[in-house]
């Protein structure tokens, strides 16, 4: 038994021998905001289309509020999809677009109008009600697309990169509005996006996909602070990875032998001697100095480049073995560092700030084509 509102159980989709989605399982609670992320082609849209009923899964089940829906046609699913190209009817007015779904469901003219006008009002687009949608800005069209789905009072709203056509300013504004709306209505959102900031600021849980598989599901904090695999660490960014072999215990402490020297692992790092492991350290936990001797875990590096990112600056470093590390400094600390590009510097961190990745699967290493 499960009390999941929307349950995806082992969903899989192939096109010929190409595996678009290998196995997707997720229990979603009522009113939860789920974001699905991953590189282009990893299977995000295919997953959403299976939920919407626009694609038939080869395997697996979808259950909504205890009822199996994967056999139902699109119009009986109550899981409308709002997608990037919007697909509004260009020859209709804003109000006609919003009323369309209700008309298809046989709702009376007066009731259609009342409900459509209510949503136009809520989304701040009443003054455009009689305008042709072709004469709206991207942000206005986005609101019409939302109104058109929300007027049907869906249990789940599926959104495929809904803000990708908007400029950065409008996208941020709409992000806030979407989150507010989702909270107020208590509707479950499943939201596909390429934008890290959208996923991490909006979602209750983020799903990271890679080559048709789910790599990690967790709260934004979990994913950001505790990426499970090398792939997720690299995808999320801002994390330095060091490969090595776990060495003998010395004075009760465990070390990792890396090509750039020995580094101490956090207490409780439970790996057997000789095991290979990937150590991850967040960029904001790495200190950079021009003199050695400041930290317990210290690696000599060359300063390769500085990347300004507002109040902070990312320093890209290279170890003697050619490994890349990234350290995030405050502008003030950078001024104090006084090191130019090409200079020898020392990257250090506290052992407790390093964590071992659970899985060492490489990006793109999973076979995606089934044997004939
Ligand atoms: N109808 C189809 N026939 C064959 N292959 C398809 C079909 N639809 C999708 N694919 C392939 O399945 C894979 C997953 O596609 P999907 O659209 O789900 O990716 P995505 O993660 O949403 O990518 P993007 O971020 O670029 O939109 C891709 O390699 C795509 O080319």
From TrEMBL:
Stored SMART domains: AAA
PROSITE patterns according to UniProt: ABC_TRANSPORTER_1 (PS00211), ABC_TRANSPORTER_2 (PS50893)
All residue ranges annotated as the ABC transporter domain in the record: 6-236
Keyword Nucleotide-binding in annotation: yes
Molecular function GO labels: ABC-type transporter activity; ATP binding; ATP hydrolysis activity
The keyword Chaperone is assigned to this record: no
Protein name: ABC transporter ATP-binding protein
Family (UniProt): Belongs to the ABC transporter superfamily.
GO CC terms in record: ATP-binding cassette (ABC) transporter complex
Keywords associated with the record: ATP-binding, Nucleotide-binding, Transport
Highest taxon listed in the record's lineage: Bacteria
């Amino acid at each position: 038994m499960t009390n999941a509102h929307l349950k995806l159980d082992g969903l899989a989709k192939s096109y010929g021998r190409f595996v678009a989605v290998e196995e997707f399982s997720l229990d979603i609670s009522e009113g939860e905001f789920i974001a699905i992320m991953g590189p282009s082609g990893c299977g995000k849209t295919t997953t959403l289309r299976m939920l919407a009923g626009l694609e038939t899964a080869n395997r697996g089940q979808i259950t909504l509020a205890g009822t199996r829906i994967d056999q139902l046609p699109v119009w009986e699913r109550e899981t409308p999809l709002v997608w990037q190209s919007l697909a509004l009817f260009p020859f209709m007015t804003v109000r006609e677009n919003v009323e369309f779904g209700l008309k298809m469901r046989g709702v009376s003219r007066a009731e259609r109008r009342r409900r459509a006008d209510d949503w136009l009002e809520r989304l701040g687009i009443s003054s455009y009600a009689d305008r042709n949608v072709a004469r709206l800005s991207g942000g206005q069209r986005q609101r019409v697309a939302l109104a058109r789905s929300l007027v049907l009072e869906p249990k789940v709203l599926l959104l495929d990169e809904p803000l990708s056509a908007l400029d950065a300013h409008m996208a941020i504004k709409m992000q806030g509005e979407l989150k507010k709306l989702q909270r107020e209505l208590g509707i479950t959102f499943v939201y596909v996006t390429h934008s890290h900031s959208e996923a991490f600021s909006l979602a209750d849980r983020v799903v990271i996909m890679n080559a048709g598989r789910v790599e990690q599901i967790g709260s934004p904090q979990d994913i950001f602070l505790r990426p499970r695999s090398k792939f997720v660490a690299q995808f999320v960014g801002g994390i330095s990875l060091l490969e090595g072999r776990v060495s003998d215990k010395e004075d009760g402490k465990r070390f990792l032998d890396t090509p750039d020297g020995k580094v101490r692992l956090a207490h409780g790092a439970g790996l057997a001697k000789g095991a290979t492991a990937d150590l991850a350290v967040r960029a904001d936990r790495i200190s950079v100095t021009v003199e050695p001797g400041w930290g317990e875990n210290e690696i000599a590096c060359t300063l390769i480049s500085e990347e300004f990112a507002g109040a902070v600056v990312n320093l890209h470093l290279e170890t003697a073995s050619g490994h890349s590390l990234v350290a995030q400094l405050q502008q003030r600390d950078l001024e104090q560092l006084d090191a130019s590009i090409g200079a020898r510097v020392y990257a250090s961190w506290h052992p407790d700030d390093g964590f071992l990745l659970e899985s060492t699967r490489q990006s793109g290493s999973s076979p995606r084509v089934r044997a004939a």
